[in-house]
Amino acid sequence: MLAQLEINQYFVDKYTIEANPSFDGQDESTDQIDIDFAMARASDGSPNFELRLFIDLNKEEEFFSKAPYRVHLQVTGYFSFPEDTEEKMIQKLIAPNGLAILYGCARNVVSQITGIGRFGRVTLPSVNFLEIIKEKAQNEQKTIAE
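Above: the chain sequence. Below: its structure as tokens.
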């Protein structure tokens, strides 16, 4: 059975992978990951979407000083649903599934690039997009209330 959500194309808009010249592998690395996203629906009302995923790994110096790499990545994906897809189903699937698909693409990019780096391959950790979406919605509601 085919999925209702289809990724049409994706692009890596920005990436920075910085090796930590002081990393010696002696300290245990505890990666810090920050994830954000933006979503927009096509202006013509069709069931087409643009999702942007922003990933920062070890952005803060405290974490980078103990890690082999600092990573910043921005990935944009274009998604669509069949025209007859119910709006309720679209709203249920687009954010968590679209972000999970893009994150898989991002994990591949980071793994490939760090695979030729001086400290070897890094795989981005698994994340719970339902929690990330929920937290973002709560923060937006809090901002509106203020």
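The chain has a mean pLDDT of 91.
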